[in-house]
Amino acid sequence: MTQLLYYADSTQLEFSAEVTAVQENKVSLSATAFYPEGGGQNADVGALAWDGGEARVTDTQKDKATGEIWHTLEGTLPPVGGAVRGEVDAQTRWRNMQRHSGEHLLAQAFFRLDPRFAVAAVSMRNAECTIDLEGQPSETDVRTAETLLRETLGRTRLKLRTVDVPEAELDRYPLRRTTKVTGTVRLVIFEDETGFFDVSACGGLHVPWAAQAGPVAVLRTERIKGDLTRVVFVAGEEAGELLGGIYQQSRALAAGFSAGPADLTARVEALRLSHRESEAQLSALRSALIAHEIAAAPLETLGEVHLRVLELVDAALLPAALNAVPRGEVLLVTVAGGKVGLASACGVHAGEVLRSALSVSGGKGGGKPEAAQGQTDNVAALLAAVRERLHAAAAPLKP
Ligand SMILES: [Zn+2]
User: Fold this and answer.
1) Is residue 262 located within the same domain as residue 281?
2) Same structural domain, 114 and 62
3) Residues 59, 65, 69, CA angle at the centre, nearest 5°?
4) What is the whole-number distance in angstroms between the Cα of residue 217 and the centre of ligand 1?
5) For position 178, what pLDDT does the model report?
6) What is the pLDDT of residues 30-48, one digit of tens each?
7) Distance 182 CA to ligand 1 centre (A)
8) 101: CA distance to ligand 1 center in Å?
9) Is 115 in the same domain as 243?
10) Residue (of 347, 345, 338) closest to 374 by Cα position
11) Distance 11 CA to ligand 1 centre (A)
């Protein structure tokens, strides 16, 4: 059976061993410091080297039936019976241990706040780790637990101790969660001279000192099915990197306001208000401009219909112009580039007139009785066709 070096010392990352079996692109060893995926903790990766060869270890898995640990290799395989030197990737391992220890410690902080906040499930697969809690903790509870843990990590000397305890002696330890494990149970304990802080049955790997898992920061909570609250947190170096990165972004953003990150919320709120006022002013100015332009546009009488023709430079003003058609009139708006609109505040059907006129001038468009839009390459032909159709139109509303 493989000797599990990671249980003897989770900080030992280099080791020597003998290849005991080879299967496809996997090898098993007489001893290993590679932790196999399990208990929510990711598999170790790293490298194996031997006389005349080397390969990357891209995955480590435990065969549940036989208990054998298989190292997946990328590259050539060492011969069975040959000696290898293994090296676990230090950064991946350390961060996995920080995540895992952060999970135990944060769960204990919630448990101390209220024993109803019991852990239903955990995940440490990604930098953003999760604990699913029962008991529906509020935002205040979350911040209280986070603060309790921060102060505990900063002000105590909680040390890791792992012990294998016979099932019958478990009642001597204040387990945070009851365990389904039978026989000999591996307990992971964070304690100091005053006693236990957290005792959990766990097969994973953890940092030697609780403070090495810090900082532990809760990013957010989510309500998930089963009335559970998912607490999303980051721990250790990954927490430092994430929070530091967010500070740098905030600082760069705040510099645009000649302010510091602490003033950012107030500055953005002021900007939002100012933007809303500017939008209102712009809208009022557009309306005034359009009213002025429409009043200045010459009014033609075509049979019983009154037509105004308005030329606009800015296509963005077209919808507002069509909305402002004077009562009893038809308004034809042309925009540089061939965009056209027709609005009616009399009995004329703008959509039908525009569609029919565009079929003569070339182009496409149409719309409702009150307003229609289209596109043509021949504005002069369109104007002539619209005039012709309005001339033939009858019975408009009186102005
Ligand atoms: Zn654990």
Assistant:
1) yes
2) no
3) 30
4) 18
5) 87
6) 999 999 999 889 999 999 9
7) 17
8) 6
9) yes
10) 338
11) 15
On whether both 278 and 362 belong to a single domain, the answer is: no
Q: What is the pLDDT of residue 4?
A: 94
**pLDDT for 173-212, tens place per residue?**
999 998 888 899 999 999 999 999 999 999 999 999 999 9
Domain holding 155, by residue range, is 94-247
Rounded to the nearest angstrom, the distance between the alpha carbon of 186 and the centre of ligand 1 is 10
Residues 99 and 241 in one domain: yes
Whole-model pTM?
0.77
Query: Mean pLDDT, to the nearest integer, of 78-89?
Result: 97
246 CA → ligand 1 middle, Å: 29
Both 190 and 311 in a single domain?
no
145-162 tens-digit pLDDT: 999 999 999 999 999 999
- Distance of CA 277 from the midpoint of ligand 1 (Å): 54
> Cα–chain-centroid distance for residue 116?
29
Q: By percentage, how much of the chain surpasses pLDDT 90?
A: 89
The β-bridge relationship of strands 3-4 and 31-32 is parallel
Q: How far is the CA of 152 from the centre of ligand 1 (A)?
A: 18
Contact 154, 209 (CB under 8 A): no
CA–CA separation, 211 and 121 (whole Å): 24
**Taking the alpha carbons of 312, 317, 319, 325 in that order, is the dihedral positive or negative?**
negative
Q: Give me the mean pLDDT over the 123-127 stretch.
A: 95
Instruction: Measure 205 CA to ligand 1 centroid, in angstroms.
Output: 6
Q: What is the DSSP letter of 210?
A: G
**What is the CA(179)–ligand 1 centre distance, in A?**
12
- The total number of structural domains in the chain stands at 4
Q: Above 60 in pLDDT, residue 279?
A: yes
- What's the 382 CA to ligand 1 centre distance in angstroms? 77
